[in-house]
Amino acid sequence: MPTPPAVQQAPASTSRRALVYLGVCVVLVGLNLRTVFSSFSAILPEITAAAGLPSWAVTVLTTAPVTLLGVFAPLAPRLARRYGAETVLLGAMVLLAAGLAARGLPLPAGATVPLLLAGTLACGAAIAVGNVLLPSIVKRDFTHRLGLMSGLYTTAIAASAALGAGLTYPLFQATGSWRAGLAGWAAPAALVVLLLLPVAARHRSPAPAAPAGGGGGDSPWRSPVAWQITGFMVFQAMMSFSVFAWLAPILRDRGVDGATAGVIVAVSILLQMTGSLFAPALAVRLADQRVLNAVVALMAGGGFVLSIFGPLQLIWIWTGLLGLGQGALTAVALTMIALRTRSAAMAVRLSGMMQGVGYGLGSSGTFLVGQLLHATGGFAAAGVMFAVVGALAAVFGWQAGRDRSVQER
Length: 409
What we know:
mainly alpha; globular
């Protein structure tokens, strides 16, 4: 039985120029998918002081986007089947640009918290859809350059977090307004909207709808391989978002001054980009990815644990190991979507399942670290937790790395 398409198949006549243009758009979309997380955190004290944010609002605004990645990810395959992946991706970027802009609108003080919440929720939904669709588009159109494109767009995602963290405060200083510091990130998102317009126009006919009650082989939810990949994603996400939220406080708790801690985190994120760039290219060259998946999971987990327990004199080594491992871990987890599926249709379904469950459960990592810190007064318990999380990521990564397809029984 032919597999019902979840995204439109690329025309055989697609020109090299069109593919290059699409590849640039994919990378630029990735470059906008994490700024909402890091930009808010970069000037959180200034926003809190100027807007008088209550503690509950700070908690919601920092955790809601991650939670929404899991809530909205399963919707992306349905939208892509109905309207086409390119059209849905364009809509997601429009929503992202609007959400980023809304966070900085100069409305009366009483509207600040509702506006921040609305903008943040819009961004979370848009990013969830973009997260799911990018791997399926890469699977569909760049099979011949799978390692390269997977590396480029996952590196762009890591770079977006670094850009948000590094440029938001200077933007705030230059303008004297926290609203401008947040709303400024709508400009690059709006540019990508313009670039995506011709891509969506070329694929404006919606994809054929999948038959109701498709065969069991068409559902990743019934595949043990899909669940192994999803488990791999859960534990990498637990570490990934905890690094963004807690690495700097961990360093400060160990006695590192604020300026040095900021530099260490920045270097660690740069090393994440290095791991993200090269790991997918290595993964596609291997007969299976069991050893690679396990090694990068243990690097990330070990780097996290050593950043808490290791000798402080070697903190640059521990955080460097964490950065390389986490970047490679995130990239190979996303690359599994393309390597373990036979079609773009299954890739978008697996992507929705893997990222919906992965981010939904993985977002608990950040919350658990905060709870353990509150209960124990330190990060030692979190260090033990991430030793376990890293080991579990290695186990699921080993299983996910076996050379099998999601469709196989």
